[in-house]
Amino acid sequence: MNLSELVSGSIGTQAVEGISNQLGIAPEKTKWVVSAAIPLMVSSLKYNAEKKPESTQQIQALADKHEGNIFENLGSLFGSSPSQEDCQIVNHIFGKNTNQVQQSLAEKSGLSTDKVAGILALLGPIIMGFIGKQRQGTSGGLGDLLGGLIKGENTTNAAGEGFGGIIGNILGGDKANSANTPTDGLGDLAGEFFNQGNDSKKQGSILDNLAGMFSKK
Questions:
Q1: What is the pTM of this model?
Q2: Which candidate in 102, 155, 178, 214 could, as Cys together with 163 as Cys, close a disulfide (CB 3.0–4.6 Å)?
């Protein structure tokens, strides 16, 4: 399973359908938020794992708790409202930036911040289950694993373009100078999205590109 499968493959399709039904949201709006949020969540986790050593153990504990088992019965996740633990996963991922993420996604999607918060909370355990599954049988550290996902190892969009290459284009680089884009710097995409120098228009543009890249033809 790679990041594309999680966002736009069978897992992503089930997630969009289940979240839409659970929260009463139009599927196209749910899909937009899911497509923008999942890469941002993975990027933020990578930043936390690399820059906050204490976070690594917390992330690993959450991932080990799910261990990918959530994908064996994904439908059960959508049988009730997001739990307090689900919300805590989101807060752990984004920290003090949680409200900023919710507000930015709400502004771009046209949903309320409460609906967006619900989507993120339901995505939380899916993300952790995904990481738990990826960790099985790997010898590298958590930062390396997440870094591989961000840089596009075994991860392509519908057009066959590597995730890392797409991110490089989003952040203003091209294939000739992508090695110098923020994909190789602090926090990858998360670092750029949370850059205090960026206004809401720039952040919205990043979200628009994230939402569209997995359905790019």
A1: 0.78
A2: 155
